[in-house]
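Hi support team,

I submitted a single chain yesterday and got back a structure, but I'm not sure I'm reading the token output correctly. Could someone confirm the output below corresponds to the sequence I sent? I've pasted both exactly as they appear in my results page.

Thanks,
R.
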Amino acid sequence: MKRIALLITALFALLAIPAFSRDRPTADIVRGQFDRINRHVLEMAKDFPEDKYDYRLKPEMRSFGELIVHIAGGNVYAAKAGRGEKVEWTDLDPKNYKTKAEIVAMFEKTMQDADATLKGLPDASFAKTVDPWFEVTEHSAEHYGLLVAYYRANGLVPPSSRPKK
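Hi R., thanks for writing in. Yes, this is the structure output for that exact sequence:
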């Protein structure tokens, strides 16, 4: 468990490094980080074998598929909060998404909705706050590290760790 926690921390740190760049406007950094983590999660959702979507590291933990649905809930929250709606962060019900195809399609939709909201915000709004975007990016990055552990526990190499052709 210590190795998983260390891996998650290291992955988040690597994903956050560009956020400290002083050469780019805050709006670009926030949009870029949000997009990057969502693309990583989507790539994993598409790549992970469908017959392993029910895999759990431990019985009390979410399955791989349930974890993708959970991450998507952050995108739903971000889209609504980013539009100024009063919203609570609540999980989507994984029982509503029974197959890999349904989970991937739902995740893509939440990405598109959140991205549309994020891109629609004026750059100046990020001088006031980076929430909910930073909060959701951090949440997704933490779970990205957990998805890596699901890959490794199944003897698989995560897409971003594979040699580039």
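A quick pointer for reading it: DSSP finds six helices and no strands in the chain. Let us know if anything else looks off.

Best,
Support desk
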